[in-house]
């Protein structure tokens, strides 16, 4: 059994041509040297955020598990076999008011799933269904596909489905946006507010003003969408999203929202369990992934220690266990790094040399930098830390340097102007181990999920996990021989 140390610089990627020249030759000299002297490749990645990066690393896919679940339900016409669905369908017979569906619109698939779900309910054709769209997207570029998705929902769906309101997810998640949440509440209760019938023009306006989709203020699309007595609030969710502030506002509106609604007549329901203090009934139980980092580690007979700051440990734990806080085993352990232990040679030597762990994952983050200068400072500090970790590992353990995603966002530069930092699309991978000479080995192509397989395979070569590490064939060795 060997030991693998994975050194993650999360947020760092291969800098793109349209980026504002973040990287220069003196920024990370240690990493540059390792890149030239040892095995190196780049991996393609489709995400630019920490959560999705860890989900792909652990499970191989960033899609919510509910996507494939609902896809199967619709294709196999299985809704009628589910007792909870049938009970919900039956309860709608007595629904006097309209059905308000709050939906995170992340992909065209969501429109198809929503359409299939509404069809399976067999609603009276005269029953009004208002879909209130929530934008979860974190990139300006997402507006390009959002208009296509909205048009599909508006014109290629059931005739009884109408778009009511549209707003960004951060409004219902961030307490500091309380005023905007109240404005959204007033719009919902009164049916009045900023109205846009031409959605392409509204999204173009948001794009021009550099407002991220998830930060968009609420606006309305269709007349007559406002809340009434005996209406139903249905959250069309795939995961346990945090809707508590929104649901609390609707069920118990503050005095500042004047209205005539008897909120006790409202019904609440969701597709999957939600993160809320309210007792909201749901149709389907929470899904967990069949594959996960924890299960892969168990299969390989190795135990991992993940070093991360306190703010990210729960998220990593959730992803590592397959989208659940109930661990399938005890193969993933954690140590908090808020006390700067990553930069202590004495402490890191003790951790890396601990025989109880065959995989050590070190987490750094640069995507939270608030300026280009801060980003460059972080990268230089991490580069110095990398040199220390390399010295501890050299000759004893395999060291792999990489990132789970590349950031893409605008940050203020030294001249105070905004500059695009674009590391999106591909991330570097360096493998440092004297046993794997460049003359005999190479790093092939793969994904962030293959990176996990490589880490495990280096720790236990006897296990057949997908790996980036390949032995060169005779012809390749001959052609690359110096």
Helical stretch tally: 16
- Widest sheet: strand order? 2-15-12-1-11-9-10
Rounded mean pLDDT score: 92
> Biggest β-sheet, characterized?
7 strands, mixed
- Beta-sheet strand percentage? 15-25%
Structural class: alpha/beta
Percent in helix: 25-40%
Rounded to an integer, what's the Rg over CA atoms?
Answer: 25 Å
How far apart the termini lie comes to 33 Å
Please describe the topology of this protein.
Layout: E1 4-10, H1 29-37, E2 39-44, H2 50-59, H3 65-75, H4 83-91, E3 99-104, H5 108-121, E4 129-135, H6 143-155, E5 161-168, H7 170-173, H8 178-190, H9 199-208, E6 219-220, E7 232-236, H10 244-251, E8 267-270, H11 293-300, E9 304-308, H12 310-320, E10 332-336, H13 345-352, E11 359-365, H14 372-393, E12 398-402, E13 408-412, E14 418-422, E15 426-432, E16 441-443, H15 448-459, E17 469-471, H16 474-480
Helix pairs in contact: 2-12, 2-15, 3-5, 6-9, 8-10, 11-15, 13-14
């Amino acid at each position: 059994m060997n030991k693998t140390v994975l050194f993650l610089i999360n947020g760092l990627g291969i800098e793109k041509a349209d980026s504002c020249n973040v990287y220069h030759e003196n920024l990370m000299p240690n990493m540059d040297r390792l890149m030239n002297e040892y095995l190196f490749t780049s991996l393609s990645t489709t995400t630019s955020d920490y959560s999705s990066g860890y989900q792909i690393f652990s499970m191989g896919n960033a899609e919510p598990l509910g996507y494939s679940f609902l896809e199967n339900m619709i294709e196999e016409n299985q809704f009628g076999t589910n007792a909870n669905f049938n009970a919900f369908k039956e309860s709608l017979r007595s629904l006097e008011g309209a059905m308000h569906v709050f939906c995170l619109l992340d992909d065209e698939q969501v429109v198809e799933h929503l359409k299939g779900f509404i069809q399976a309910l067999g609603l009276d054709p005269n029953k009004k269904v208002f879909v209130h769209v929530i934008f979860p997207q974190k990139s300006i570029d997402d507006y390009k596909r959002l208009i296509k998705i909205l048009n599909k929902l508006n014109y290629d769906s059931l005739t009884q489905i109408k778009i009511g309101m549209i707003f960004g997810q951060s409004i219902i998640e961030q307490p500091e946006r309380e005023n905007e949440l109240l404005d959204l509440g007033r719009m919902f209760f009164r049916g009045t507010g900023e109205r846009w019938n031409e959605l392409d023009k509204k999204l173009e306006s948001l794009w021009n003003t550099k407002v991220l989709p998830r930060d968009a203020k609420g606006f309305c699309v269709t007349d007559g969408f406002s809340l009434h007595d005996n209406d139903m609030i249905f959250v069309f969710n795939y995961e346990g999203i945090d809707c508590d502030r929104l649901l609390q506002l609707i069920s118990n509106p503050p005095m500042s929202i004047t209205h005539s609604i008897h909120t006790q007549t409202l019904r609440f329901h969701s597709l999957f369990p939600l993160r809320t203090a309210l007792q909201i009934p749901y149709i389907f139980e929470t899904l967990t992934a069949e594959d996960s980092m924890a299960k892969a580690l168990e299969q390989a007979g190795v135990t991992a220690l993940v070093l991360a700051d306190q703010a990210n440990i729960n998220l990593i734990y959730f992803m590592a266990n397959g989208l659940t806080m109930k661990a399938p085993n005890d193969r993933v352990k954690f140590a908090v790094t808020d006390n700067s232990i990553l930069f202590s040679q004495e402490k890191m030597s003790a951790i890396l040399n601990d025989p109880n762990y065959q995989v050590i994952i070190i987490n750094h983050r640069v995507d939270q930098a608030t300026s280009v200068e801060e980003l460059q400072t972080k990268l230089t500090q991490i580069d110095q830390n990398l040199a220390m970790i390399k010295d501890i590992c050299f000759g004893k353990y395999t060291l792999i340097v990489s990132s789970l995603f590349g950031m893409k966002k605008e940050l203020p530069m030294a001249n105070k102007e905004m500059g695009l930092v674009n590391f999106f699309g591909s991330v570097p991978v360096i493998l440092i181990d004297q046993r794997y000479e460049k003359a005999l080995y190479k790093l092939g192509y793969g994904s962030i999920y293959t990176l996990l397989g490589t880490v495990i395979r280096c720790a236990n070569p006897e296990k057949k996990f997908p790996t980036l590490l390949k032995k060169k064939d005779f012809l390749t060795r001959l052609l690359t021989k110096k």
